[in-house]
Write a structure and sequence with these properties.
With about 290 residues, this protein is of the alpha/beta class. Helix content is about 45%, strand content about 15%. The chain has two domains: about 30-115, Leucine Dehydrogenase, chain A, domain 1 (Rossmann fold, 3-Layer(aba) Sandwich); about 140-265, 3-Layer(aba) Sandwich (Rossmann fold). The structure holds NADPH dihydro-nicotinamide-adenine-dinucleotide phosphate (NDP) and 5,10-Methenyltetrahydrofolate. It catalyses: (6R)-5,10-methylene-5,6,7,8-tetrahydrofolate + NADP(+) = (6R)-5,10-methenyltetrahydrofolate + NADPH; (6R)-5,10-methenyltetrahydrofolate + H2O = (6R)-10-formyltetrahydrofolate + H(+).
């Protein structure tokens, strides 16, 4: 049976680090690091994430502000809110929950967030910084995955890694971080040929596909490390259940180490989001 990489426990460590940084910023500089979360529409999954983020922020002694806008909100209204948050000295981090309703221009919204407050690391300036090996605010989910990987592989140098998925929020920044850690990185996606055999050659597989239990034991080299980013709600006998992009039961029998869902990458994402918020606050001191 594979070693379980416990995201809940690791995220508690990250959150403790966050809490002491918050204490320091309060005591020494009299500022309360504050995260503003913007949620447009009623997407029930997003509401769960937003709730979790706000809860953890409060526990860490941080400020958190929620802006819930209805699904019909116009681009102008959203732009005006972001403008206001950009200029509010008491807000240090801004997160606009994605995806946005289809009538809104996501790229425009992301580019309008002040790069120094972009705790998601999605602004083109932060994306460019990461791509050129000078990371600034690093996307939370890939950052969390790296912390989990380091538990198993303190030195990642030379590892063959396959990242399945090429989204801007997970796959691409994940690949950039792995490359910077001297891994040999392959990015697979829906047009990739022989994806199964590619994965079977990998020392590490990172799954960010968005398909429930897509990757099974036949794809995994015995002893490999598997990071499951997927969060998929499925129906089992009328009950809602969260599963990853990896078929946990079969893969855990062949892998050397694996992350569970829930309790894996998800909690790490939140930990890193709050860590980014304290980093952003510190940089805004000057
Ligand atoms: N734990 C966490 O904190 C987070 C979890 N998530 C979860 O991670 C998953 C991925 O999210 P995200 O990156 O935003 O998803 P996207 O839908 O944006 O991207 C999915 C990627 O998977 C690829 N893909 C889809 N089908 C296949 C296939 N049959 N074979 C190979 N590749 C395929 C797509 O390829 P193509 O580009 O060719 O279409 C795409 O690159 C989701 O389950 C999401 O809920 C996301 C963010 C944070
Ligand atoms: N701008 C933006 N930034 C994001 O980081 C972002 C986003 N938009 N849109 C949606 C995805 C998804 N995401 C998750 C974060 C935490 C959990 C999480 O905490 N999951 C828990 C449990 C969740 C539950 O029980 O429902 C777990 O996996 O154990 C899940 C998913 C962040 N995302």
């Amino acid at each position: 049976m594979a070693q379980l990489i416990d995201g809940k426990q690791l995220s508690d460590q990250v959150l403790q680090e966050v809490a002491s940084e918050v204490e320091l910023l309060k005591g020494k500089y009299d500022i309360v690091p504050t995260l503003a979360v913007v949620l447009v529409g009623e997407d029930p999954a997003s509401q769960v994430y937003v709730r979790n983020k706000v809860k953890r922020a409060t526990e860490a002694g941080m400020g958190s502000i929620e802006h819930r806008l209805d699904a019909e909100t116009s681009q102008n209204t959203l732009n005006a809110l972001i403008d206001h948050l950009n200029n509010d000295p008491e807000v240090h981090g801004i997160l606009v929950q994605l995806p946005l309703p289809s009538h809104l221009n996501e790229d425009e919204v992301i580019a309008s967030i002040h790069p120094a407050k972009d705790v998601d690391g999605f602004h083109p300036l932060n994306v460019g910084a990461l791509a050129s090996g000078r990371p600034s605010l690093v996307p939370c989910t890939p950052q969390g995955c790296m912390i989990m990987l380091r538990q198993v592989h303190p030195d990642l140098s030379g590892k063959n890694v396959v990242v399945v998925g090429r989204s801007n929020i997970v796959g691409k920044p994940m690949a950039a971080l792995l490359l910077q850690a001297n891994c040999t990185v392959t990015i697979a996606h829906s047009r990739t040929r022989n994806i199964e055999s590619l994965c079977r050659n990998a020392d590490i597989v990172v799954a960010a596909v968005g398909r429930a239990e897509f990757i099974n034991a036949d794809w995994i080299k015995p002893g490999a490390t598997v990071i499951d980013v997927g969060i998929n709600a499925i129906d089992v006998n009328g009950k809602r259940k969260l599963v990853g992009d990896v078929d946990f039961e079969s893969v855990a029998r062949v892998a050397g180490a694996i992350t569970p869902v829930p309790g894996g990458v998800g909690p790490m994402t939140i930990g890193c989001l709050l860590l980014n918020t304290t980093r952003a606050a510190r940089r805004q001191l000057a």
